């Protein structure tokens, strides 16, 4: 294993952060896998999974079983990791700009297309290699003006030429669930089985260029840009893995999740050995546009009456909001039939706050589909 240090743009004299990446296997000897943890720096289950992954990858490398190249970034956001306000960790948004750390990744599809077009043809494998090389060069040459932009560029440079990209996150309180590009679902379905995901939420463009889509959507964008003149497959499976809720930081869960990720990498040929049996699915894929929020019209104490993982019917009460002054109780109901897959962990809500999400089967929303 090799340890690489990536210096970020210094935000002030005497101050500089760095990103650390761990590299297993040999580039070009098989599929490239990129795994990062805690891009939202206060979402910690991924960091513990990365700890167990590192131990397992060390053993696999010692046994000569790394059949491709595996890059692990055990802590993907040194900026957010350092942001505390009154002892509260603020890891989702950069406090300088207010921007979400998982939005606005550099878009270099057109620059890479222009650089690669003269070398493209009917050979899909060669086209993939040419486009990956052009994309990596375009990302690395893109200018940055802030520390946050330099973090985004570094993460994209490490991941943009990978066959598989796994971005480890978590929700507030949730079941295991995934996000991926609609065109990636056939390749993602085995991962959902190995992880026991209750639902995989699909979108071709959810808005604001989050990290996973920045890695995967360039492939269908290139195919559309060139009008089908060249053989361009969907060459990157990029998935946001939501490792349940923020408090699910336990060794038993993390060790099991790490092993399931490696089972999938064995299935995909990045790890040598007998391929573990593909488990039966415990969930399905649904449109991200069918994920419907439950909002509270009033402020008060929030008391849930249904749990993450419950199937609910439209109109069914999911939570109560209680005004401590008037003693009024407001019922919050499911807007659609579906899976209650995530809910808030706070228990006092303000008017208009989204407190839970239901994964329905019909696409009912449009525009930007992700939360802030």
TrEMBL record:
Keywords: Hydrolase, Metal-binding, Zinc. InterPro entries: AstE_AspA_cat (IPR055438), N-alpha-Ac-DABA_deacetylase (IPR053138). Residues 29-114 form the Succinylglutamate desuccinylase/Aspartoacylase catalytic domain. The keyword Zinc applies. SUPFAM superfamilies: Zn-dependent exopeptidases. Its cofactor is Zn(2+). This is M14 family metallopeptidase.
